[in-house]
From TrEMBL, chain A:
GO terms for molecular function: transmembrane transporter activity. One of its GO terms (cellular component) is plasma membrane. It comes from the Bacteria. CDD domains: EcfT. This is Energy-coupling factor transporter transmembrane protein EcfT. Keywords: Cell membrane, Membrane, Transmembrane, Transmembrane helix, Transport. It comes from Pediococcus damnosus. PANTHER family: PROTEIN ABCI12, CHLOROPLASTIC.
TrEMBL record, chain B:
This is ATPase component of general energizing module of ECF transporter. GO terms for cellular component: ATP-binding cassette (ABC) transporter complex. Keywords: ATP-binding, Cell membrane, Membrane, Nucleotide-binding, Translocase, Transport. It is found in: Cell membrane. Belongs to the ABC transporter superfamily.
Length: 265, 278
């Protein structure tokens, strides 16, 4: 889990790294939406090219992207199998009860494979090239209009960044507690599901207690440093939209236009 | 010398407890002084520090900080004059990276961006952490995190620094680094330092020591005076510094010892030298 979700940011100096996190967030989103409109191989080719150019522009080792796809391979395979077995239309090669293997089913399975892979690649690119705090900054900035309906944007963004900041600490703590329980003879690896779940409780309780203590300490420390709510603060990290962001937006917009043009083929 | 902190008849009890955590505490601290507050666990040291920073709401007694009386209205002004560093390095690191954390207090004070940048840079170089500015807290040792906390305090340019057992979770090297930086700051900027500790070894920098027991001040005075009442300290579960004890033992054996204070290492050097001279 550690490997999939966190600590993935690879700090490098590249075109993609230097982009405004807001544009990265928006463009990744756009990419994922547009790919659902793909209905022929030319579109997938175009979108694959854009994805690979983006990856190249990030200077991040391609192997890390393969690592990103690997853990999700089972889910992709499962979806493909469903599509192959239940898909209908076109030429039928095999048929048994509700199951059938058809040419359209196989084609759709192939599309799904490419689509999933590309989506994973693009979102991996976002998380590898953007630190969690930048993502939370970008969200704060993009959600700003919600302040009009009294949504506490500053507070939510701060909460998010503190939560992200404490994830590794809490993981360390879990490890420590588990080791402490192991030293008392608890074996987390054996027993049936219910027995194993029962063994989780002596981990959770100390974990909660310590999380609350931390939260209290942190609140005191924040107050001592003059924190009194989000409004009226200045920001140390400024987001700046630059030429490279406009350029990337242009490329992705052209891709979107291209996709809709190719749909007519 | 004007009064930087004045506490008069401060009494405070946590709602759950019948025993007050602070019981009729009065003292003054002159501007530019280093004052150590010692006492065993639960003697009320942290409660006192939090009261000074307006972090607990006391009803009995008064506190003045730099001439301003601490009230609900003045609490933010008072707080901007006080920089606090707490015991646990992990639980006071708010930012995602070192520089973000140092900037946190400045963001709260709505300091303009350019000035913020300059003050963060300066504070980080003061604690020798400039090379770590983009590091995340998990990549730092406890001592480094405390130095970041100190940089956060320095950036706010307070008149008073309060250390609430800020070095108790550090190894001797980390402890010495933090105290070294604070000593330099105090010398250069005349900052008033209040260090809370139950390591009597840490009080040797102090101009004055306040001994707290069960919420009451039991003794106040210069370190030498306090150390000479070793009976009292022992009774309170504290102990005089090792080097002080060594000196006393030597004096009892009619060996002349240096007048100025030496830490353990200093005493070792002095012993080597006096042996060589013989
Ligand atoms: N949040 C709290 N709620 C209730 N009682 C508290 C709270 N914090 C402290 N106390 C009590 O108040 C008294 C003084 O505690 P305080 O934390 O000020 O002591 P301390 O001298 O800082 O101790 P230590 O050396 O352990 O840090 C203790 O008896 C303690 O149990
Ligand atoms: Mg304490």
């Amino acid at each position: 889990m550690n490997k999939i979700l966190f600590g993935r940011y690879i700090p490098l100096d590249s075109f993609v790294h230097r982009m405004d996190p807001r544009s990265k967030l928006i463009l990744s989103f756009l990419y994922v939406i547009v790919i659902f409109f793909a209905n022929n191989w030319w579109i997938y080719l175009l979108m694959a090219v854009v994805a690979f150019v983006s990856i190249l522009a990030s200077k991040i080792n391609f192997k890390l992207f393969v690592d990103g796809v690997m853990p999700l391979l089972w889910i992709i395979a499962f979806t493909m199998v469903i599509q192959i077995l239940f898909g209908t239309g076109g030429q039928t090669y095999w048929h048994w009860g509700i199951f059938s293997i058809t040419s359209v089913g196989i084609l759709n399975a192939a599309y799904i494979f490419v689509r999933f892979t590309l989506i994973i690649l693009i979102s991996t690119l976002l998380t590898l090239s953007t630190s969690p705090i930048q993502i939370s900054d970008a969200l704060e900035s993009l959600l700003m209009p919600l302040r009009k309906i009294h949504f506490p944007v500053y507070e939510v963004a701060l909460m998010l960044s503190i939560a992200l900041r404490f994830v590794p600490s809490l993981m360390d703590e879990t490890e420590t507690i588990m080791n402490a329980q192991r030293a008392r003879g608890v074996d987390f690896g054996t027993g049936n599901i219910i027995q194993r779940l029962k063994k989780i409780i002596p981990i959770l309780i100390p974990l909660f207690v310590s999380a609350f203590n931390r939260a209290e300490d942190l609140a005191t420390a924040m107050e001592a440093r003059g924190y009194r709510g989000g409004a009226g603060r200045t920001k140390y990290r400024l987001l700046k939209w630059e030429t490279r962001d406009t350029l990337a937006t242009l490329v992705y917009s052209l891709m979107a236009i291209g996709v809709f043009a190719l749909r007519l083929l | 010398m004007n009064e930087m902190i004045k506490v008069s008849h401060l009494t405070y009890a946590y709602t759950q407890n019948s025993q007050p955590a602070l019981d009729d505490v009065s003292f003054t601290i002159s501007s530019g002084d280093w004052v150590a507050i010692v006492g065993h666990n639960g003697s009320g040291k942290s409660t006192l520090a939090q009261a000074l920073d307006g972090l607990i709401d006391f009803k009995l007694g008064n506190i003045w900080v730099d001439g301003t009386k601490l009230t609900e209205q003045s609490v933010w002004t008072v707080r901007s004059n006080i920089g606090m560093i707490f015991q646990n390095p992990d639980n006071q690191f708010v930012g995602a990276t070192v520089e973000d954390d140092v900037a946190f207090g400045l963001e709260n004070m709505a300091v303009p961006h350019d000035e913020m940048q300059a003050r963060v840079d300066e504070a980080l170089s003061e604690v020798h952490m400039s090379d770590f500015r983009r590091k995340q807290p998990e990549q730092l040792s406890g001592g480094q995190k405390q130095r970041v906390a100190l940089a956060g305090v320095i950036a706010m340019q307070p008149k008073i620094i309060i250390l609430d057992e800020a070095t108790s979770m550090l190894d001797p090297v980390g402890r010495r680094e933090i105290l070294g930086v604070i000593r330099k700051l105090k010398k250069r900027l005349g900052i008033t330092v209040l260090s809370i500790t139950h390591e009597i070894d840490e009080t040797t920098d102090a101009d004055k020591i306040i001994v707290l027991n069960d919420g009451k001040i039991v003794s106040t005075g210069a370190p030498e005076t306090i150390y000479s009442h070793s009976g009292l300290l022992l009774k309170l579960g504290l102990d005089v510094p090792y080097s002080q004890r060594l000196k006393r033992e030597l004096t009892q054996r009619h060996i002349k010892t240096p007048e100025t204070y030496f830490d353990e290492e200093g005493m070792v050097d002095w012993l080597w030298q006096s042996l060589l001279k013989k």
